[in-house]
Amino acid sequence: MTTQINESVYKDQPAVTIESAVIAAQFLPGIGAKMASLRYKPLDLELLVQRPGAAYLRQPYDGDYVAGECSGFDDMFPTIDACFYQSYPWKGTPIPDHGEVWSLPWQCDVDAGSLHMQTRGVRFPYRIEKWIAFDGERSLQWRYRLTNESPFAMDFMWAAHMMIVLEEGAEIVLPPGVNHIVNRLSFNGALGNYGDILDWPVARLPDGSERDLSRVRPPSARDADKYFVKGRMPAGWCALTYPRSGLTLTVSFSNDTVPYLGILLNEGGWGDLYNIFIEPCTASFDDLNVAKTRGECSTVAAGSVWEWTMGIQL
């Protein structure tokens, strides 16, 4: 297959586009190396949430993520929720909202049909890199490397913050062996309280009713829920089927190093959007300290590396 990599423009920002015969993906190296667009070329179908306006809504370092563009796919590291680091030698250091790297510029190089992008931490001594390349014309792959440049172990969370568009009747497919989820956020309160455990896919809700959580409701539901698969993923993938277009989008990940999965289903309940966040992650529950309390936190040893992979198949 042939891979094309070209400089491009996204809104008013310089970008780089990598594409095969089937997929075109556009990245913004100057803004977190964000994937701003993912287009399925046979149907000219944009699969990532886009915001209106000709100008990209930038935020500064330590800015409010939601007040910015809030679209596409950003890397969240080393947390999602703003919090304070709890362990020596960085105890008490504030970690920005949605992490550090989404607002930082990344160096970008093209090497043998792939993109290589990297950046360094501001408040913590690390380097994070990613290589992006096609593995077949329908499969775009990410390879990540985190390098701890300090003589101390570092707790962290990485999450893929992917805002994927929905169509009515879509179905969420999880691997065999996923039987329970843990509620993180329920806008209308239907899933109960923070930390409540429910069956997957058909959950008995606190009001006694049942809901098939794998079946996406229309935007008239005006609801949004976020939950995590309970415990470690039995296999590294999550799929979304689109009945109207006949497309299946699969997010794959190395579940030995990315063992957790969060899903935020926005059925018209937030921001007048109809989308799903599929978030493979190295630690659970959005907050680094909550993950550590739950025993679901990742730690990279002093002077060591942590590597993981992720892919999108169409």
Description:
By secondary structure, this protein is mainly beta. Helices cover 2% and strands 46% of the residues. The chain has an eight-stranded antiparallel sheet, with no helix packed on it. It is globular and about 55 Å long.
Number of helices: 1
What would you call the quaternary organization?
Answer: single chain
* Whole-number tally of structural domains: 2
Identify low-pLDDT runs: none
| Secondary structure category | mainly beta
The percent range for strand residues is over 45%
N-to-C CA distance: 16 Å
Strand order of the largest sheet: 9-10-11-12-26-22-21-15
Number of β-strand runs: 26
Major beta-sheet overview: 8 strands, antiparallel
User: What helical percentage do the residues reach?
Assistant: under 10%
How are the elements arranged and paired?
Blueprint: E1 4-10, E2 13-19, E3 23-28, E4 34-40, E5 45-46, E6 73-76, E7 83-84, E8 94-95, E9 107-111, E10 114-120, E11 126-134, E12 139-148, E13 154-156, E14 159-165, E15 171-173, E16 180-186, E17 197-199, E18 202-204, E19 210-212, E20 223-229, E21 237-242, E22 247-253, E23 260-267, E24 274-281, H1 288-293, E25 298-300, E26 305-313
Antiparallel strand pairs: 1-2, 2-3, 3-4, 4-5, 6-14, 7-8, 9-10, 10-11, 11-12, 12-26, 13-25, 14-24, 15-21, 16-17, 16-20, 18-19, 20-23, 21-22, 22-26, 23-24
